[in-house]
Amino acid sequence: TAYEIRLSLVGSEMCIRDRVSTQSTGDNEAIYDISMKKLAIDKPTYTNLNRLIAQVISSLTTSLRFEGALNVDMNEFQVNLVPYPRIHFLLCSYAPLISSERAYHETLSTLELTTSAFEASNMLAKCDPTIGKYMACCLMYRGDVSPTDVSNSISNVKNKKTVSFVSWSPTGFKCGINSQAPSKVPGGDLADVSRAVCMISNTTALAQVFHRIDNKFDLMYGKRAFVHWYVGEGMEEGEFQEAREDLAALEKDYEEMGAELAPGEGESVVG
């Protein structure tokens, strides 16, 4: 059930953290909101959610399947987006998120797509990016997009007060352009468009996601709900508390990344 998943999520998050170099973060709540509010789907199913996730993954892996003058290699994600081994959880967004009916009324310029990618309603994880600070972000454009339009759009975003970066990281933006436009899935929910952008970023706003998971975990673990299933499979109850403490530490690590002092100039350094 959904409640049982919340209990196991804390432990699995820590397990994943120790075994991967980067991880894209997303949650059903955010994707449900996109499906209902952006795509006008009254009752989203897992098929609707999975199609949206597949479109994002397709954009992330475009450079592996199509040649492009300004492709971003997958290996560059880790180099540009992960300042420390623990700080490797990334936030994804996608634009445009519009249905076929709305596509006829939208101009979908490169500037509009870029601006939309930084909006909370386009994020695949439920958080407010305006509260946090970006450490770095990669923008991957597809379709009819020119380098000049991308440069002008990035300059526009940099001047927005709602988009801020940490002072200690010079990485900033990494952009890729591929002329292959996104494909429309037959019977899919997203409109057939000539251009799109997928952004993957590392931001301190992800602390909000970890905080929400912690709170939901505490509600169930306080009642020891579903714990007997895990203990029956050989798991020790103490492992839940260890994982909970570790995720709380990760939340704090992300919050500290937004401090004005560069890591190493303060009292602690994230390992």
Structure at a glance:
The chain has 271 residues and is of the alpha/beta class.
Structure description:
With 271 residues, this protein is of the alpha/beta class. The chain is built from 11 helices and 5 strands. A 5-stranded mixed β-sheet has the order 1-2-5-3-4, sandwiched between helices. Helix 8 (147-158) links the parallel strand 3 (134-143) and strand 4. It is globular. 32% of the residues are buried.
Distance from N terminus to C terminus (CA atoms, Å) equals 35 Å
Query: Class by helix and strand content?
Result: alpha/beta
Count of DSSP E strands?
Answer: 5
The fraction of residues assigned to DSSP E strands is 5-15%
Largest sheet: 5 strands, mixed
**Proportion in helices:** 40-55%
Question: Can you tell me the overall shape?
Answer: globular
What is the spatial order of strands in the main beta sheet? Answer: 1-2-5-3-4
Number of helical segments with 4 or more residues: 11
Rg: 19 Å
What oligomeric arrangement do these chains adopt?
A: single chain
- Write the element-wise H/E pattern from the N-terminal end onward: HEHHHHEHHEHEEHHH
Unreliable stretches covering 5 or more consecutive residues: 1-9
Q: Averaged pLDDT, please?
A: 84
Write the layout of secondary structure elements.
Layout: H1 2-17, E1 23-25, H2 28-38, H3 46-60, H4 62-65, H5 75-81, E2 89-95, H6 100-103, H7 110-117, E3 134-143, H8 147-158, E4 172-178, E5 195-203, H9 206-221, H10 227-232, H11 238-256
Parallel strand pairs: 1-2, 3-4
Antiparallel strand pairs: 2-5, 3-5
Helix pairs in contact: 1-9, 1-11, 2-3, 7-8, 9-11
